[in-house]
Amino acid sequence: QVQFVESGGGLVQPGGSLRLSCAPSGPIPAGYAMGWYRQATGKQRELVARISRGGRIEYDDSVKYRFTISRDVAKNTFWMQINRLKPDDTDIYFCNHHEGIFLWGQGTQVTVSS
After folding, report:
1. 19-53 CB burial, b ≥16 within 10 A, e <16
2. Distance between CA 41 and CA 50 in Å, rounded?
3. Cα–Cα distance list, 86 to 63, 66, 74, 79 (Å)
4. How many whole angstroms separate alpha carbon 90 and alpha carbon 42?
5. Main-chain phi, psi angles of 89, to 5 degrees
6. Is 79 left (phi over 0), alpha (psi -120 to 50) or beta?
7. Does residue 73 have a pLDDT over 90?
8. 4 pLDDT exceeds 90?
9. Which of 42, 47, 66, 104 has the fewest Cβ atoms within 10 Å of its own Cβ atom?
10. Does residue 21 sit in helix, strand or coil?
11. What gap in Å lies between CA 24 and CA 76, rounded to an integer?
């Protein structure tokens, strides 16, 4: 099965920005939409952004206008720019198929704190 390595997280002050990257272990089948998820301690993993192979994008209301998901189909990579970060954005961030059909990676930790 395809596996993922997420990177780009870290400690950032409120209002700061990070660029999260996703590296699949193999090619993603044509036509699959992908997504970024996040999970806070003690809570369910939730989808926050998705992007189709053709570039159609949808965001959860909690991140709309602050986060930007992008995809390079030719390079088999995708990422998410996360801006104007708030303490509530402190989560582990994961990438996967937009319905979570692949195995989950370890995620990348984003911590927003002064």
Report:
1. ebebebeeebeeeebbbbbbeeeeeebebbbbbee
2. 22
3. 10, 10, 33, 19
4. 13
5. -80, -5
6. beta
7. no
8. yes
9. 42
10. strand
11. 7
What are the strands, taking DSSP E only, across the chain?
4-7, 10-12, 18-24, 34-39, 46-51, 57-59, 67-72, 77-82, 91-97, 108-112
Amino acid at 103: L
Q: Which two tokens stand for residue 104?
A: 């989950």
Per-residue model confidence (pLDDT) at position 97:
95
The rounded mean pLDDT for the chain is 95
Query: Tens of pLDDT along 52-70?
Result: 988 899 999 999 999 999 9
CA distance 83 to 45: 20
CA angle 79, 88, 44 (to 5 degrees): 75
71-94 average pLDDT score:
95
Task: Give the residue carrying structure tokens 């989808």.
Answer: 47
Q: What is the mean pLDDT of residues 83-94?
A: 98
